[in-house]
């Protein structure tokens, strides 16, 4: 992974390649599941952004509108979450997102997460499916 989330977020070929690999892996795993009714894709730190971006592709190409997203000490990118929510054709349910973040996180400060939450709230009603966000802030840092 790139050392900087900002570098990763630019959409470089390295990041697109990584997202394609995650999408391919999830597809392979789902093909072996006898019951795929409960699906969650998640990531920690930069991996949380990878998971969110991969979810956009999975919902768009595969119609996986029941898959949820777990963000562990990662950025909350309202734009990406809204794209993921609306990516699945015919999706009727909100995208369920659970975010866990440390109150003393120095890598991605808590204030940045609150800005993302505010941005997501400002998008309410503008997406076809919406995003259902649950958050949990814990004592501690980037862990």
Describe this structure in words.
- The chain has helices at 5-9, 13-31, 46-62, 78-87, 110-122, and strands spanning 40-44, 68-72, 95-102, 131-138.
- By secondary structure, it is an alpha/beta fold.
- Strands 1-2-3-4 form a 4-stranded parallel sheet.
- Helix 2 (13-31) crosses helix 3, helix 3 packs parallel to helix 4 and helix 4 (78-87) packs across helix 5.
Characteristic key phrases:
4-stranded parallel sheet, 143 residues, alpha/beta, 5 helices
The largest sheet, given as strand count, sense and whether it forms a barrel, is: 4 strands, parallel
Which range best describes the helical content: under 10%, 10-25%, 25-40%, 40-55%, 55-70% or over 70%? 40-55%
Strand order across the largest sheet: 1-2-3-4
Helix/strand/pairing class, anyone?
Answer: alpha/beta
Topology, number of strands: 4
Can you write the helix and strand succession as a string?
HHEHEHEHE
Give the averaged pLDDT, no decimals: 83
* Measured distance between first and last alpha carbons: 17 Å
Evaluate the radius of gyration.
Answer: 15 Å
Shape by Cα distribution: globular
């Amino acid at each position: 992974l790139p050392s900087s989330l900002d570098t990763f977020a630019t959409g470089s070929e390295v990041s697109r390649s990584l997202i394609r690999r995650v999408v391919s892996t999830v597809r392979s795993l789902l093909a072996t599941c006898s019951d795929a009714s409960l699906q969650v894709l998640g990531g920690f730190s930069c991996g949380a952004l990878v998971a969110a971006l991969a979810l956009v592709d999975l919902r768009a190409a595969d119609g996986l509108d029941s898959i949820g997203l777990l963000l562990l000490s990662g950025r909350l990118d309202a734009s990406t979450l809204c794209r993921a929510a609306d990516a699945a054709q015919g999706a009727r349910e909100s995208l369920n997102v659970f975010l866990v973040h440390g109150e003393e996180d120095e890598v991605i400060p808590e204030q940045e997460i609150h800005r993302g939450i505010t941005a997501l709230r400002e998008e309410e009603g503008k997406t076809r499916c919406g995003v259902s966000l649950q958050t949990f802030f814990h004592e501690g840092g980037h862990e």
